[in-house]
Amino acid sequence: MSTFLGFIEEIPGISVDRFNNKNKESSVFFLSHCHSDHTRGLCYSFWNMLQDRGLFLYCSPISKTILESQFLDVKGINVIQSLQICDPVIVSYKDSNNAEFVKVTSIPSGHCPGSVMFLFEKNDQVILYTGDFRICPNDFRNLKPLHDLQYVPKKLHKIYLDTTFLNLDFKYFPNRKECAFQICSVLQDWLDENSRNVVVLECSANYGAEFIFEKIAEKLGKKIHVKDFLYEIYLKMDKFSRYVTNETMTTPIHACMNKSDRNVLKCRPCSDVKIENIMTVVPSAMIWKGKDLSRIWQWDQTRDNTLNVCYSTHASYEELVAFLKYFKPDEVYPCVCKKEQRLEMYHLLREIAKESEQKKDDKKEYVLSKSLQERSDLNSFKSKHFSDQED
């Protein structure tokens, strides 16, 4: 869960992934993806404020599609601007009524549909905001906006980093292909066992399990039944529309439930599906804390016929270490850091810095500036437009 307050310290006047309280005093806004802990403050009054002040929110084309589907009136007022992936643009804004400009490049972050990182370049400062991300270390070199023409990593002065799993309890995660393969194998056996058997995919967020949907549809030849409003959004995305359906009875695989709806399948008549015919699959990483992370799946010890799968859309500890050692930023700001985690997290960051930059001054550490450290606003933002179920 993001604890980032939305302000890029080096670029006053802009807000990223936070749209309430003092963030509304900014003159330009950026959204990395559409999960609820990154959309605090997005509501109709916010869109009206943008229209009244002639301001814009920038995001990826897919995020724009999601926003315009969830806020039906926002499309007509033209306050959302989409940034084409890896295509740098100059964005104008104001700081203390002075006209300013910043070069912005959106970069795929591998977290969920439409999720991006933002590379900000201004006054010789190069700042990367990762949002939520998971990128295979073998693919770092393919992030062209983060390299020069000779494929040398750019000098990053600061990274605002997704530190969800900067924790030694989550050193390693299996890759998503391995997870999807195992899910497909278990599902195939279960569905072959009895024609009345069904599967419930218990997803932790509205968006983020699409890779699993895709592989299930390809391997098993069956679409996934999703919530009606999500189906309408997927129809606007060619990549995903072929894998989902809103027809309850045409598929035994369902991702239409809320996390609180356990051991039932509300979209089907009770007489049609009995409890013993339901297998629940939980793709998640948080529940694997303290467990054997080399195992991709295991049966839940407290819930009947429930399969827990170690599936993450956030970088593991080892992947975060690889990312920092590859790009070697001068400073790191942890965007997921509760107060009780602060000492341990900064200790880990200092150790990573020492390992990756032995030739630099040992006094240079990843330090959180007091102006940001002392600010705290962790109140959750409630909205009917965004699920608040995300990890």
Kindly describe this structure:
With 391 residues, the protein is α/β, with parallel strands linked by helices. It has two domains: 216 residues, Metallo-beta-lactamase, Chain A; 135 residues, Rossmann fold. Strands 12-11-13-10-14-16-15 form a seven-stranded mixed β-sheet. It has a six-stranded mixed β-sheet with strand order 5-6-7-8-9-17, with no helix packed on it. A four-stranded parallel β-sheet has the order 1-2-3-4. The C terminus is likely disordered.
CATH fold naming of the largest domain? Metallo-beta-lactamase, Chain A
Described by the principal axes of the CA atoms, the overall outline is: globular
Kindly report how far apart the N and C termini lie. Answer: 6 Å
Note the beta-strand portion.
15-25%
- Give the % helix: 10-25%
Give the secondary structure arrangement, pairings included.
Blueprint: E1 14-16, E2 28-30, H1 44-53, E3 57-59, H2 61-70, E4 80-82, E5 89-95, E6 98-108, E7 116-122, E8 125-129, E9 158-161, H3 176-193, E10 198-201, H4 210-220, E11 224-226, H5 228-234, H6 238-241, E12 244-245, E13 253-255, E14 278-284, E15 297-299, E16 306-310, H7 317-327, E17 331-334, H8 342-356, H9 370-373
Parallel strand pairs: 1-2, 2-3, 3-4, 8-9, 9-17, 10-13, 10-14, 11-12, 11-13, 14-16
Antiparallel strand pairs: 5-6, 6-7, 7-8, 15-16
Helix pairs in contact: 3-4, 7-8
InterPro entries: DRMBL, RibonucZ/Hydroxyglut_hydro
Keywords: DNA damage, DNA recombination, DNA repair, Endonuclease, Exonuclease, Hydrolase, Nuclease, Nucleus
Organism: Cephus cinctus
